[in-house]
Amino acid sequence: MKRLLVIGALAAAVSACSHTAPLQIREPGLPGAPVYEHGHPSYKLRMPVADGLAYAEYVKATLALTQGNLREAADHLNVTVSRDPEATLPRMKLVNVLLLLGRRDEASQLMGTLDLDPRRLPGELLSIYVDALISTDRDQDTIEAMKVALKRGALAPMQLLRWVTLAEQRHSPEQLRETILELRELAPDEPIFDCVEGHLLMRSEQYEASIAFLDRCREASPDWLPALLERALVAELTGDAALAQTLYRRVLELQPGQGLASWRLRALTEATTTGQSSSEQLARLLHEVQYETALQLASQALSGDDVERAAQVLADLPAEDRSRPRARLLRGLIAETSGDLDRALRHYEAAMASDQPAVERAAAGQWVRVLMARHPDDWLDRAERALKKKPRLGLLIAISEAEGQDDPQRGLSWLEQWKDAFGDRPDYWYQIGLFHERAGHRDQALAAMEEVLRRNPDHADALNFLGYSLAEEGRDLDRAFSLIQRALKLRPDAGYIMDSMGWVLFQQGKAEEAIDWLERAVEREGPDPVILEHLGDAYAVTGRDNDAVRAWSTALEQVEDPEARQRLRSKLDRIQP
Question: What is the pLDDT of residues 481-510, one digit of tens each?
Fold first, then answer.
């Protein structure tokens, strides 16, 4: 049983970091960045500019990735690769996207066409190549690529941790430790190796030796979450509950709500207050880790389209664990994939009872999609009856589906279907207003926002939307000021509302006051092109031409909309003819 704990330990540590998605897609630059040329012609490491359509599809893929639309990105990258098969960067990006989508066979086939020598790859491509290799079972190729990255100082710590997490399912701790020692010779002072060695020793139940390595890693990086979590788990396994609690609390200070730390700290506290023996507590811990590990293995099997394996993993769980919401969600996916839609609906409906919002929303989203497929004629009536019991969740699902439509008008049409179910909720009308705005229906958008405020006068986003819209049109500026002032009282730290206040003041001819608010907005939101353009306008009116040029130039670097780019260039030309 202890082995189950340590198998899942590093996976939990990897997932603890907010920037460590299963695959990271690193974007080398915005579309239109300098063309990639490399000294080795056989690689042709370039953007797909030789073919106009290929380049256009690449740009669309890049935008889809920034919005998290992986399926759309894959479609555009497939067109790019088919039209310009020698463009290496799009092919490697496509591998990563396919792996993220669980389409491992396609990714492996495409990887087979990438017969690359990592020593000849430039930095960004090497990093993407390492990411793609890590998610395959080509361990020797992965090791060689990681060696190259280590020599260049370009291997991210989380890449090494991800590879160990996956490779330890195929190799013994002793075999992996030999590889880690070999890699460590290339970067002997890198603290990540202490963390990995500590983990592998823990897997071998050499706890005291593990402690020495993990403590050394923590000395070098005191607040690195993987090391903190690993050390806390070892503390539990060696009976040091006080240290484990201290470390879990530190993890939660760094990342509030972190799953493993929250669960373990709660369990340790219960053990302390209820007088639960250490053996009872350890048995409970191992039971939970067994459950978590089973869910992870089932998810991996589903990602690889191995439905039978996923079903078997969950079937091996005790009956009470198979009925827990996250397990029911996975069982729903298995049933849906197998074509048993009625069974899938039952599992998804049970999973919607979860007290974890992410599980609740995921289950409800799948439930609606399967309901549409199973009952195409009356799915909406069925959905309304069920989701009226959970109006907040139902509205989230309606909004999510609307966001997934191809264009704003279709999203608006989708939302309007739900008016009878959610028309009494302010957030419903707020979303209606946003979709009208995206569709170019300015008057309808403003009317929807007025409806929001009729139902909830303290809806900060609607107050800001209306106030900013009035300021943009240069009308009813006194009301615009009042609306945004109310929004700021509700959300005093919101940078985008600070920008609105600055813009209203600017429109009122109070440029100096506007600058104060706009500078604060930039500090809060970063180099947002809209805020920077507003700030540049205010600088220009007050005679601060150099500051205006800097603000507009920075905005121009960030913005992609052709109309906005032309407007910014015109402003710069007026000051720098």
Answer: 999 999 999 988 888 899 999 999 999 999
- Both tokens assigned to 236: 């539990």
DSSP string, 235-282: HHHTT-HHHHHHHHHHHHHHSTT-HHHHHHHHHHHHHHHHT--HHHHH
CATH of the domain at 34: 1.25.40
**Of 85, 101, 134, which closes a domain?**
134
**Does residue 259 carry a pLDDT above 50?**
yes
Q: Are residues 123 and 32 in the same domain?
A: yes
Token reading at 316: 């091996």
**Using CA atoms, how far apart are residues 348 and 184, in angstroms rounded to an integer?**
46
Predicted confidence band of residue 261 (pLDDT cuts 50, 70, 90): confident
CB-count burial class (<10 Å; 0-12, 13-18, 19+) for 136: middle
Q: How many domains does the chain have?
A: 5
Q: Decide: 78 and 98 in contact? Cβ < 8 Å.
A: no
Q: Does any domain span residue 151?
A: no
What is the amino acid identity at position 188?
Answer: P
**Residue range 303-318: mean pLDDT, rounded:** 77
**What are the pLDDT digits (tens) for 209-247?**
989 999 988 888 888 777 888 888 889 888 898 999 999
* Separation of alpha carbons 380 and 372, rounded Å: 8
Query: Could you give the CA distance from residue 198 to residue 212 in angstroms, rounded to a whole number?
Result: 8
Is the same domain home to 114 and 206? no
**Among 75-79, 120-124, 261-265, 270-274, the least confident range:** 270-274
How deeply is 233 buried, as exposed, middle or buried, from its count of CB atoms within 10 A (0-12, 13-18, 19+)?
A: buried
Distance, in Å, from the CA atom of 84 to the CA atom of 114, rounded to the nearest integer, reads 14
Residue closest to 135 by CA, chosen among 115, 113, 177, 106: 106
Identify the CA nearest to 337 among candidates 377, 370, 295, 362. 370
What is the 3-class SS of 333-367, one letter each residue?
A: HHHHHCCCHHHHHHHHHHHCCCCCHHHHHHHHHHH
Does 298 lie in the same domain as 382?
A: yes
250, part of any domain:
yes
> Are 489 and 577 within one domain?
yes
CATH of the domain at 510: 1.25.40.10
**Residues 74 and 119 occupy one common structural domain:** yes
User: What would the two tokens of residue 508 be?
Assistant: 């009122």
The candidate with the shortest Cα–Cα distance to 480, out of 441, 524, 449, is: 449
| pTM for the structure as a whole | 0.45
Clarify whether residues 441 and 505 are in a common domain: no
Domain end marker among 434, 456, 478: 456
Question: Residues 327-355: pLDDT tens digits?
Answer: 999 999 988 888 889 999 999 888 887 76
CA distance 154 to 146: 9
The sign of the dihedral angle between the CA atoms of 183, 185, 186, 192 is positive
Residues 265 and 340 in one domain: no
Tell me which residue of 282, 288, 271, 290 sits closest to 239, measured CA to CA. Answer: 282
272 and 296 both lie in a single domain: no
Assess if residue 28 is contained within a domain: yes
Please compute the mean of the pLDDT values over residues 524-530 and round it to a whole number. Answer: 82
- Do the domain assignments include residue 150? no
In whole angstroms, what is the distance from residue 258 CA to residue 255 CA? 6
Higher pLDDT, residue 177 or 5: 177
Where in the sequence is the domain holding 305, given as residue range(s)? 291-389
